[in-house]
Amino acid sequence: MAVYTAVSASELTELCQRYGFAETSQLKGMAGGVENTTYQLISGEQRFILTLFEQGSGEDLDYFVQLLSFLATQGFAVAAPLPDLQGQVLHQIEGKPSLLFPFLQGQHPEQANAIQAKAIGQWLAQLHLAGQQFPIQRPNQRSIEWLQQRMPDVLAFLSEDDQRLMQKEVAQFAELLETYPDLPQGVIHGDLFRDNSFFAGDELTGVIDFYNGCTGHWLYDLAVVINDWSFQAGDEPNTSIGTAVLAGYQKVRPLRPDEQQALPGFLRACALRYWLSRLIAKHLSPPNEDQSSVIKDPEQYRKILVLRKRA
């Protein structure tokens, strides 16, 4: 369960007073997530999501608060943080910066179908286009520079073959970016896995977890989605799902010729990124209490990388 910080009764009471909730409101810890503490706040018939951020400061959250508020005003199905009775959005709970979100209806698609995949592709393209009007920029924290800097930290945990694989793929991604220097960039979600989307049946009801959001290559965002949504079961990609994501995206924003040529390289680079970040989490980031149960397997994305190389 992703609860690393317990919330005292007095802190809960103070939070309820800020929002005008009943003092009988309750917190229920939620499973999932790796980095932050997440609760469901139940107040009468209403439900909300309370997130305590275990890393960083409140200043780090300003970008996400403003981005989510902007998207909400544009009609996007996102969970924008809720202001309290005084109009305050960001709070300190148990010394941690905290945000309260609406509770989205629907479920994560464990096994997404082609209709859902097409819907998420359309949503992503709409995000990219709308984000051109968002004035704030934030550097991509998982850029090629990050890959180059962090790769040496994990090589000792890999076989010689995997060391060569990672080193070669980092070099090839750098070469790809030099080959295509003018690929479109703008606001990206940065982590749009299936468990960050909600569906009621085949209808997309919302998208969450923008904490990897930044200014980056749109193609990177698309590749993250295609990889996760295609590899839902087993070691082989479901090509119909990947095709549906791409078709949905291109219905809203057709890819340019240079993007079409670069997409296979970005699919590999995104697999590389998650392989590396999961290795860091597994070997170099000591887990908090109970966190070991939610560290994701790096091997999954090593296999995806190998399969993308063969395609």
From TrEMBL:
Residues 28-255 form the Aminoglycoside phosphotransferase domain. One of its GO terms (molecular function) is homoserine kinase activity. CDD domains: HomoserineK_II. Keywords: Amino-acid biosynthesis, ATP-binding, Kinase, Nucleotide-binding, Threonine biosynthesis, Transferase. Signal peptide: none annotated. It catalyses: L-homoserine + ATP = O-phospho-L-homoserine + ADP + H(+). GO terms for biological process: threonine biosynthetic process. It is an enzyme of class 2 (transferase). The keyword Protease does not apply. Its EC number is 2.7.1.39. Pathway: Amino-acid biosynthesis; L-threonine biosynthesis; L-threonine from L-aspartate: step 4/5. Belongs to the pseudomonas-type ThrB family. NCBIfam families: PRK05231.1 (NF003558), thrB_alt (TIGR00938). This is Homoserine kinase.
